[in-house]
Amino acid sequence: MSSRLEAEQLYKVFGRRPGEAVERLRRGADREDLRADGTTAAVIDASFTVEPGRIFVVMGLSGSGKSTLLRMLNGLLEPTAGHVRFDGQDLTALSDRELREVRSRKISMVFQHFALFPHRSVLENAAYGLEVQGVPRREREQRATEALELAGLAGWEKSWPDELSGGMQQRVGLARALATDADLLLMDESFSALDPLIRRDMQDQLIELQKKLRKTIVFITHDLNEAMRLGDSIAVMRDGRIVQIGTAEDILVRPANDYVASFTQDVDRSRVLTAAAVMDARTRGDEAECGCETASPGTAFGELCAISARVEHPVAVVDADGGLVGVVPRQRLVGFLGDEQGEPGPCDTPRGKTVGAVKAGA
Q1: What is the pTM assigned to this prediction?
Q2: In this structure, are 75 and 207 located in the same domain?
């Protein structure tokens, strides 16, 4: 599948002689070397691709460069070096007028802070992007009404922003992005300002919308649990660099370095991992070792624990044709849950004690 969005060796440097700073970074200088000269390297040699209809999550701590990276993707910030291609078009080579046209019709952005106009109704806020495009009033109101319904705000069209809760205001921001029917949505910490329960509700809303609309989305967050829940692929940033790109299972099971591994310590692995991630690979010749109750490679971790609790032998993992592809011993399940002590559960050993964590990829 061809990529919809491609970032190629992006750099963003603030300060004096940015071009010279990029060359120093390419020769092996780091952020601290440049900072001593009064120059800040916000993004360093970032490359990735996003396929159509996928959610690509960029995560990292504050100051890691993730929001700067996002702003280069739609031209709000000009890269010091590198290229951004959208549907094969090099956005970094466009004129200001051409870039504004792309942003108004093909790329929408949902901000962390709702950025609603207080003097406009919910409907008028949702239709704002279409107004900028010059869409006639009747058509933009119809499309905005449909977008509000998708975002769960049917019946609120005539309300004012200050009459809405924070979660509802964020839904208006999402509806505004959807109304333009843009091919690419850029979401910058869009749920970070919300209370935990509302935040999870917005995540649910985005997941459901994505099933219907199949938009291409780049989502910025500092919350790994959110990244794991939403992302088809996840990029982890540190000090301006992307240090790992992979699926949620890749990040959990095969962290690229200690920094990535430290991020995963507090993640609820049972919500992310599947049988394919935790099984020991086997061949058909080992089939006789396993009992009759089986799981598929996509069986969720929690369900796998329940199966393991019902049988004395390792759980067999079989493909769609019934062929054996792996086995999951009970102690391996315990290992992937980590070595934290807690109440006995279905994946605990008979005495209710956990076993030390299995090393990633073991």
Answers
A1: 0.81
A2: yes
